Amino acid sequence: MSQSIVTIRLNGTPYQIGCGEGEEAHIESLAGEIETILQSLVGAVGQIGEARLLAMAALILADRAHEGGPATGASATGASATGADDGGEAAAAALESAADRILALASRLSSH
Prior knowledge:
112 residues; 2 strands
């Protein structure tokens, strides 16, 4: 199987990611979802450091998976993998709720 390299950007930083041939578009789509979460976090808490932002994004994605939400397969606009757009508001609400919980946790951790 051939190996491809895709360069993605997360919060302005380029990362080269190896993937199987033909998986480039999927990797770029996943990176787009993560970038959307990162930019939402930056808007809420500012540039608090790449590692913290990526950790918070990972927690949001884990929370979505735990809640059965759209952890993957949704576009950056929140549309479902089937192309329906009615999940956009629900995805935005889930992202906002998860971000609120993570911000509250971060606040509690930073106060100790």
